[in-house]
Amino acid sequence: MNRQIVCIIIFSIVSSCVWCDPGPRRVIPPFRLTLLPGVRIPMGTYSDIFKPNMGIGLDFSYNINSFPVVLRCSSTYDNIPLDNDLDLTLLSFGLMIATSFYDTPLIEISPYLGGGYFYSFLQDNSDYEGGHPFGTAGVRCEYLLTDLFGFGIDIGYRHFFGFSDDISLTLSFRSKIFFPVGEENDLNSSIQCINEIYPVLYDYYQNNPSGSVSLSNISDKSIIISKVTFFIQDYMEEPENVLLDTILPGKESLAVDLYVRLLPSVLTITRSVTSLGRVTIEYISRGKIKNRKHVQSLTFQPVNLIQKSDPRQISAFFTHNDHFLETFSESIKTSVTEYTSAEIDTNIFIAMSTYNALKLAGIEFLDSPSLTDGYRVIQFPYTTLSRKKGNSVDIAVLLCSLFIFLDMDAALIVTDDAVFTAFSINLKPDSLNSHYKNANNFIISHNKVWIPFVYTTKTRSFYEAVEDGIRLWTENSEGNSSVLYPVSELRKTYNGLDMSLIDDDITIDAVQGTLLRNQNKMDVNKFFTRQNPLEPFPAEQNAVNEQQNIRFLNNLSIIYAKFTMYDKAIVLLHTILLKQDYIPALVNLGNIYYLLREMKKASVFYERGYEKDPLDPVILLGLARVNYVLENYGNVKEYYRKLVSIEPELAGEFKYLDLSGVKTSPYPENPDSIIKVIWIEK
Fold this sequence. Notes:
Layout lengths: L2 H17 L11 E13 L9 E12 L4 E13 L5 E12 L8 E16 L6 E16 L4 E12 L3 E13 L10 E7 L2 E2 L6 H4 L3 E7 L5 E10 L7 E9 L4 E6 L14 E13 L2 E13 L4 E3 L15 H15 L8 H15 L3 E2 L5 E2 L2 E3 L3 H7 L1 E2 L1 H14 L4 E5 L4 E7 L17 E3 L2 E6 L8 H16 L5 E4 H7 L19 H17 L13 H20 L3 H12 L5 H13 L3 H14 L4 H13 L3 H14 L1 H6 L18 H4 L7
Parallel strand pairs: 10-16, 18-21
Antiparallel strand pairs: 1-2, 1-8, 2-3, 3-4, 4-5, 5-6, 6-7, 7-8, 9-11, 11-14, 12-13, 12-15, 15-16, 17-20, 19-20, 22-23, 22-26, 23-25, 24-25
């Protein structure tokens, strides 16, 4: 292959590298100087005359900013040994055009081509000297230690027209040259950060941006955004890295979200304070590491303040790990456990007991606005309990927080003028119409059935609080101004404040369980006997609904009996027995008369049940207990023996009935054995 073909091939390859787009390019310094010592290997016609030799070159480079092109002025010095022990000196001067691209930010690959004029002479003082044009092409690969200095290798081909050609292998040592020129503006940046921070959203800001910074590359070259950090003085331990090692192409923009990891000390802010937020941008442009800094004044609002525009933020006050609420909720749990029913939803009793607990704790409703110039001022639950007063939002927050501790499914309802609470029942929406005739008074949302209620004054019963909630929901839902937010959904965004972070010595006395149970007894009559959203279908409807109504009435009678409202329970049970000898009604009526110490009446209903099912252990127990009090000990032995054979564990709970031939008194030593009865719910 002759020299002309080699030149054409190399020229074509290098030209394609220069003019095609090889992808992202490192922006190189505008001016630099490169030293090139290396070895030249002769080739072609004169390779048998010239020997490999050492040489040195010097490049002065200038980067054209608007194109991926570098212009180089080059000069070389070569000392070429000849076969006849003479040396030939060769000097060259030329211009080259190059481009640059890279695989990593530290490596630069630069193909080039060019030409110029060379001058040569012998070093034996002879008259030989001469000069001709030359052409060159090659590629240079450099490792950049800093934006000021780099080193690498250069492999090139030189053709000296009318003389010779060679391949050069040289080292390169380059350095940036400083000229008194103005620095080009290649990156515009601006802060778009909110100027308010709400301490109660302590955890929220870690995963949700508090603002953003806009970055715009106004040059034609790609730049590398090395790092963007955000730091708030006094309230962050260290800057938060929000962006690392990102290429920003020419003429493109990028928005970077700013996150913060706040110190717990923000929770002590009780009045507006100002701090400085600093955004630092580190980037590489034209081979130089640059910095941009922005400082913005940020306002920290008081810990009890949020924006009105986002009512979901109210849930940030639903506290957890709260010692005060945990203590308070324990008394509520105690008052609920003994009043449960398969037919009457347990959540109703939890909500009722929670409502009455607040009344007994002396919580006063303040009819005052919670808005201040577009903000909501909200008390934490423990503050409402300790102050014993709060507006509608404060009490709604307290109720929702208590429901969290009680494992209750609750929701926050927000209207234009009010904030109140709702709780869900365990009935599915598609079963609502078959269970309750006033289904329109329920709220169906998020595949659940909800009952709203409003705490206003201590004199209103739980039933009246439900009526108020239904009225407010209905009035505002017509204009679509009522929104229901389930607590479980709200906590996915605003998980509430961990109260273990707050050091406070407020103590709260737990509501006495006895007082709470007595209050529940007073309210249950109003709630379950008046016309209300939980009224069942009337008995005259179809057989399926009638059977459901019988079960409902039976279980409602148990509720009345547990609240010692025996007269109401007896009426309901007799209503059932007028239709059929329903075993649960017979047994439960016998239990009530037993508790009323009317043993003969109790015996009548136990025996009616025995005729229908002689193997029912609760009936056998009832007959044994009644006969024990009536001193019919023979019957006691018979019924108790059957009970032992059928249900030995139940028999063991009433060991005093095991006479075993021993004469005993009509009353056992343990009074609890007399009071305890077993209710049948079906």
